[in-house]
Amino acid sequence: MDSLIKQPEQAQKSGLAITSLVCGIASICCLGLLAGIPAVICGHIAQSKIKTSPTLFKGGGMALTGLIMGYVSIALSLVVLPILAAIAIPAVVNAKEHAIAIQQVLNAQQICHAIAQSSERADSESAGKSGFPADMGAQSANQVAAMLVEGGFLSAGDLKRLHFDQFLIGNVSKKDPADTILLRSKPAKPYSMVAIVLRDGSGQAVKSNRPVGNVPPRDPQFLP
C-alpha cells in the first residue's frame, strides 16, 4: 500500500534564479549593464515564481544574490561610465587635434622649405621676384603661392595636397630673426591646437600661437 501512495514532488532549483546569479557575477566582473539588467530581470521573475510555487521551485538565495549584484553593477555603471566618458572624450579629442596639428607642421615645413629655396634663388639671381614674402613685396598669400608655382618649387597640386590655404603666411624678410613665425595654421576653433613653423624651418604643434620656451617666437604681420 505504501508504494501506491503518491510522493510529493521535490522542488527544483529555478533556472531563472541560476541565470540571475550567473549574470550578476558576470556584471560585477566585466560586463556591467550588459549582464546587470538581465540579472535583475531574471532575479525578480525567479523570486516571484518561487514565492508563488514554493513546492515546485527553489533557489531564492541565488535569485536574491543575482539581484543584489545586478543592482550594484547598474549603480556603478551609472556613476562610473559618465566619469570615464568625461575623461576619455576630451582625451580623444585632444589626441585627434594634436595628430592633425602634427600633420600640419609637416605640411608647413615643406612649404617653408620651398620658400627658403626660393629665397636662395633670389639671392643668386637678384631677380627680385622670389624670396621671403617681405623681400618680394608680396601683398597676399595668393602671391606667395603663385611665386612658388612659377619658380617650380611647388606645383599647384602640391599646394592643394599640403593644404596651403589653411595657413597664415608671415610677411617675413631674410633680415628677420630665425624665431619669427613664417607659417601658422588657422585654428579650427578657439584654443585648439595650431601648427607653427619659424623662419629657420623648425616647427611644432601648440595650444596657442606661442610655444613654450625661453624666447617666444616673434609674430609678424600676416598676409591676407
In short:
With 224 residues, the protein is of the alpha+beta class.
Provide structural commentary.
This protein has 224 residues and is an alpha+beta fold. It has two domains: 12-87; 100-206, no CATH class. It contains six helices and six strands. The strands form two sheets. The chain has a four-stranded antiparallel β-sheet with strand order 3-4-5-6, covered by helices on one side. Strands 1-2 form a two-stranded parallel ribbon. Strand 4 (181-185) and strand 5 (194-198) form a beta hairpin. Helix 1 runs antiparallel to helix 2, helix 1 packs parallel to helix 3 and helix 2 (33-52) runs antiparallel to helix 3. The termini are far apart. Residues 1-7 have low confidence and may be disordered.
Please state roughly what percent of the residues sit in beta strands, choosing from under 5%, 5-15%, 15-25%, 25-35%, 35-45% or over 45%.
5-15%
Number of helix segments?
6
Radius of gyration: 35 Å
Number of strands: 6
Biggest beta sheet summary: 4 strands, antiparallel
Order of helices and strands: EHHEHHHHEEEE
Structural class, judged by helices and strands? alpha+beta
**Could you give the order of strands across the largest sheet?**
3-4-5-6
Fraction in helix: 40-55%
User: Which whole number gives the mean pLDDT?
Assistant: 82
Total domain units: 2
Q: What global shape is seen?
A: rod-shaped
